[in-house]
Amino acid sequence: MDWVVTGAAFMAAAVEFVEAFTIVLVVGVTINWKSAIVGALAAAATLAVIVAIFGVAIVKYVPIDILRIVVGVILVLFGLKWMKKALLRYSGLKALHDEEAIYEEHAAELRARGEGTTTALVPSAVALSYKSVLLEGLEVAFIVITFGSSASAASTAAGIGGIGSAAIGAAVAGILVILLGALVRAPLTKVPENTLKFVVGIMLTTFGTFWTVEGLNGSWLFSDAFLPILAALYLLASLVIIAWLRSTKQRAISTRTVQQKG
Amino acid sequence: MTKITNAINAVYNFIVGDMIILVGIVLALIILIIINAIPALGVVRPFLGTLFIIFILATLAATLAREAYSRKR
What we know:
The structure holds 2 protein chains of 2 kinds. Chain A is built from 8 helices and no strands. Chain A is mainly α. Chain A is flat. The N and C termini of chain A lie far apart (64 Å). By secondary structure, chain B is an all-alpha fold. Chain B has one domain. Chain B has helices at residues 2-15, 19-37, 48-72. In chain B, α2 runs antiparallel to α3. Chains A and B meet through α3, α5, α7 and α8 of A and α2 and α3 of B.
């Protein structure tokens, strides 16, 4: 098993499944657990099918150099998207993800629609649970397929080991979130979502950069051993950017205060 | 036409959702491909990785600067 791939998929899945769990919890508490669980399981099955079909197709039919470049660039784009959000949150320019507020918002919405507790399977509740797990899970499926397929291509062993490793990481995260949620029975507010998003963003950007250049027949100093150096470089750059964004925000607040007093 | 536009928009928002990041990375890729393809630029080829890292960091800084300064206004 490729532990780096498993780890990245685990962290990405943990963040997304925590967000999906909030909606499933709203449906379960406000309407009924039967509808919430049926919707969630249906979405999980859909995601498994998507990963199986696209993952196998990509690894078997796409030539390795094209796979590295295309998947590498996609990983860089996805990784930068996650890094950007995390850096904005760390610098205070964007609010942290508040699972409790999201829970209350959706619960109020369902109550306003006249949805109440019932024992029967409610189609709209099943659909809401299905949609939330599917939408959040699509990002995880995307990471499992892209990250896993490039890892498979990069390894000397044949087969779809990379995707399998990533899928295992995602599945373990999903089970952990469900168990934690069942224990807590409330929105999982203590999960460090922003930190996980930041770490996964750096990992995706690092591997995306590495594989894109390899796909273009470029080479790296120390070969695979350059990966942790590259990750450290992106981390250092991120810390500098956070400091710069915070100082920009401070200057804006000071300017506004002076203008208000004047 | 609207359905196609909506689908493209959905994919764009799913993968990146930021035009500066998309343009920056696509531009970087084009430049790297050109360097790789033109024999006269062979002297730059050992620095493909370094160039890509610089492009990525510049793109990240550019999009965050836009966010920071648009909030200032």
